[in-house]
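User: I'm putting together a small comparison set for a docking exercise, and I want a reference complex before I start. The sequence is below, and the ligand is zinc ion. Could you produce the 3D structure with the ligand included, as structure tokens?
Assistant: Of course. I'll restate your input first, then give the structure tokens for the complex.
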Amino acid sequence: MINVRHGNGVAIDIDRKKFLLDPLVTDFVSFVSHAHLDHVPKAVYRLPYATEETRELIKVRDPTFNAKVVDINTRYEEDDFSFELMCANHILGSAQIYLEVDDVKILYTGDFKITPNKTTKRLKMPDEVDYLIIESTYGKPEYVFPDEEDVISDFLSWIDKKIFIGKKVAIGVYPLGKAQEIIKILNDHGIEPKASALVEKYNDVYRKFGVKLKTANDSEVIVKSMHEVLNRPLNGHANAVVTGWALTEDFGDVIGFPLSDHADFNQLLEYVARLNPKTVYVTHGFTEEFTEEIKKRLGINAIALKELKLL
Ligand SMILES: [Zn+2]
Ligand SMILES: [Zn+2]
């Protein structure tokens, strides 16, 4: 018997064994999929499993954080279960959590993406699973991203034009993950941007793991947090944000480019169809909407995990 619910992270009970995925408080057998704030524990009671990259990225914010470090894409056998952290192709070190308990195969995607990024390793997909727990950040049909290379070329030509007329450019992004993607895209275009102090801290972890990112102390282009650019657009600068939400949101004077490190609606649906599990549990996003789409379009049993409000 398997029971999957949302409370202290995603909790799985199977054959009297208990697993916690991205919990607020780690206990029992816990896993941390990646270093974004909404997936990171607030308290560590027992050390969770995580990749070394994830541990080092979390330590940027919380130097006391620790984890049982395991290699990505490597199977580990414990007494009564086995597991593998499979590359999620989302940010540095991000992993899906694959569990095998008494021949039952379970996959939790965490945040993931199918099409390749510039600074992450390719998505690894298991051969088959019985149960799939999938994120649904962009789990509504209107969230289908345009071709990424088209967005990137629009973005770069917008920057080139601004620089050509003598403007400086401020780019607002999520400081972990998207910032490093944008810096790599700029580097490949011959631009070495200036990065804010927080972005630079994460850059250093990426560099430690072999991702080459070139930044400069002075540049026509600055990469900083999205909320800074939106709340305090720099005077005399051309301001842009890069986020998947730019697909549907208007940021006023700030131009938006829809580039995401998440699967869009089509990729989410494709992943469910390819794995064809017995049951899909939907979490983290448009849970109700995506659950209905899975049932309607794929005829696969799906359940929305209710996010419990912790008092
Ligand atoms: Zn994330
Ligand atoms: Zn997330």
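Residues 34, 36, 90, 111 surround zinc ion (ligand 1) (CB under 6 Å). The mean pLDDT is 96.
User: Thanks, that's exactly what I needed.
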